[in-house]
Design goal:
The chain is of the alpha+beta class. It has one domain: Lipocalin. It has helices spanning about 1-25, 85-90, and strands at about 25-30, 35-40, 45-50, 55-60, 70-75, 80, 105-115, 115-125, 130-140, 145-155, 175-185. It has an 8-stranded antiparallel beta barrel. Strand 9 and strand 10 (about 145-155) form a beta hairpin. It is elongated and about 45 Å long. Mean pLDDT is about 90; it is low at about 1-20.
Length: about 190
């Protein structure tokens, strides 16, 4: 009887381990089809930075959000703006300071279904400053392809981004980060 009980316990443990790992879905980011942008107001005019070097490790199954995890990294030096002065300010020591802080990072292991989509509650790190952020996003999965679009707002001064090189009071305090992510099931 002990042998039967031990074998049953081993079989159940193995079954639960397999079921748990099978329900988590990993995704491979399609960088060419994805984008990361940041919008801000400068001199009362909208301005946008685009980031070309980014990566993400994504585990997400809408039917098993308890296993969800997002770990995304953006190279701060890859930020570009169309105006040369804005570009210089973005990459300056008062801006993202890529020589001292080469990456911005968002990590979440708390993804929730909400009306109209999902929310990833996580921590954004820029210039070694960590701030809680809620990324609201929509998600469509068709076969082995996922497409997500989302955004969140942050205070630039909370991360030590002063913007004084653009002139005091001429740079908006709020930055809206927009993401378009396309990924393939692994």
């Amino acid at each position: 009887m002990r042998l039967f009980t031990a074998r049953l316990a081993t079989a159940l443990t193995a079954s639960l381990a397999i079921a748990g790992s099978a329900s988590a879905q990993d995704w491979a980011l399609d960088r060419e089809a994805s984008s990361v942008r940041a919008a801000i107001t400068v001199f009362n005019t909208p301005a946008e930075a685009r980031f070309t070097d980014f990566d993400a490790q994504i585990t997400l199954d809408p039917d098993n959000l308890a296993e969800a995890r997002i770990d995304a990294v953006v190279s701060t030096a890859s930020g570009t703006m169309t105006t040369r002065d804005y570009q210089q300010a973005l990459l300056s020591g008062e801006g993202l300071a890529p020589s001292a802080h080469p990456q911005a990072r968002f990590v979440s292991d708390d993804v929730r279904a909400v009306e109209g989509g999902y929310e990833a509650h996580g921590v954004l790190t820029i210039r070694d400053v960590e701030e809680p952020v809620v990324l609201a996003f929509t998600l469509e999965i068709d076969g082995g392809r996922a497409v997500a679009a989302g955004e969140f707002e942050v205070s630039r001064s909370a991360f030590g981004i002063t913007g004084s090189s653009w002139g005091a009071g001429n740079v908006g305090e709020t930055v809206t980060v927009s993401l378009h992510i396309e990924a393939d099931a692994r």
